[in-house]
Amino acid sequence: MILMGSRINPAILQVINVAAILATILFNSIVNVLPLNGVTTGRFQTLIQTFSLPQATFSQYGE
Question: Which of 22, 23, 31, 62 lies most in the core, judged by the most C-beta atoms within 10 Å?
Answer without folding.
Answer: 31
